[in-house]
Amino acid sequence: MKKLCCIGHITLDKIITPEREVYMPGGTAFYFAHGLCSLNPDANFELVTSIAETEMKSVDDIRARGAKVTVLPSRHTVFFENTYGTNQNNRKQRVLAKADPFTVKSLENIESDIYHLGSLLADDFSIEVFEMLSSKGTLSVDAQGYLREVRGDKVYAIDWKNKQDFLRYVDILKVNEFEIEALTGHTECEKAAVQLAKWGVKEVCITLGSYGSVIFDNDKFYNIKAFPPKAVIDATGCGDTYSTGYLYKRASGEGIYESGQFAAAMSTLKLEHSGPFNKTEADVYALIQKYQG
């Protein structure tokens, strides 16, 4: 298996649903690390995060699961408030605190085959970071942070400033059905994916919530069906879980369709509870087999 490195802030999240209100760690870094540790505790994986000293327990918990974690000190921890209605595909967000951004200097000694940048806010990673990491390995990016603008404490959807300059360095881009319209102006997955590919992205992964996902690579579309959950409990982190499963399988040498199907099944199992994915690789394949048989 190739080495995987996820870089991103661990957050403090307040999650409000019609059933409950909870505080817990979050962010791409948190969901990716825990998900990967559940899939394979011995995976060739490193987490790089930036967090305030007050939230170091989140890092200690990940290290206790066997993962290598590099911590870059930050004055603050990112603090998100996520509010969901009865439709878990939609959420409202507020940002109550921001952490320090990642820099070329802080990341120049990090070595990996695949880098996944879990952007939460537009200034988390500069274009210089994209350029440096893409020169050292495969660069995977979650676009969500670059499409968020904080005004006061509220989060608004915006276009990605200078997106074409950034995207030419990106090998794998994860976006959802709302982000593709903000990025490309297209609501149709196929048109949006083709446009993103023209800007330089090699693999475009578009997640569509309960409608599945679409992956575009080398002029070929892969349509991945969603797996029905036993219950819809908490969608927070499902997109990050999808990236975890997809990159884990790509790093293991699996093809695009197989990796996308694994990611979709993994996301369904995560949707059935609050917190990060906590099942096994065997559980994911059991769900796939259930609907293939």
From TrEMBL:
Residues 161-278 form the Carbohydrate kinase PfkB domain. One of its GO terms (molecular function) is kinase activity. It holds the Pfam family PfkB. The keyword Transmembrane does not apply. The keyword Cytoplasm does not apply. Keywords: Kinase, Transferase. This is Ribokinase. It comes from Candidatus Limisoma faecipullorum.
